[in-house]
Amino acid sequence: MDFDDLSSFPLQKRWRQQTSPMPVVVSIIWRDIPNSDSDKSERCYLLIRRKNAPYRDRWALVGGGWDFGETLVSAALREVKEETGLDAEFMTIKGVVSERLVPALNDDGEAAHFLIFVCQLAAPNGVAREQDEGAVTWFNFEEIEELHHAKAIIPSDFIMLRRFIGPDPLAHHEAEMVTGPSGEQSGWSMELVGFEKIS
Fold this sequence. Notes:
By secondary structure, this protein is α+β, with helices and mostly antiparallel strands. Helix content is 16%, strand content 41%.
């Protein structure tokens, strides 16, 4: 399957029979947490370990579908509250990612297309708790890199974290992933084949 052929991919084989890209909000949620080994605090980021396919057992940014009639801010805050129990503070939008997923060669899997609005939120107070979507944990960036090397985080989410943590202005990116069965416990493999800044 080629990314250029996605528009002709059979409707019944598309994720939730998509006819257009699905708008999604994801949030980079940060908090400064005291380091137990020193007097300093370190910047940590909240991730969720997804319970459901296709991202089952992978760590990810918190977020989900952008509901009809919601503002971007209200969608981001709602998703964070639903998935972590936290009342967060919206800071800014960091980037927009058009992410396309195709099944691996000769795989009978689904294709998907998401338009992801990456937001930055602060959550200086409160306790993040597991909700219906999965466990939540704070990680410093070194630990997030370890998750990436262990293939325990969604690859495009890792790149979004790495690209959008800094002070760069709003940017548009295109992401492409190939997905397929892995034979492992999670049953799903993902390979990031492209992540390109467009503007």
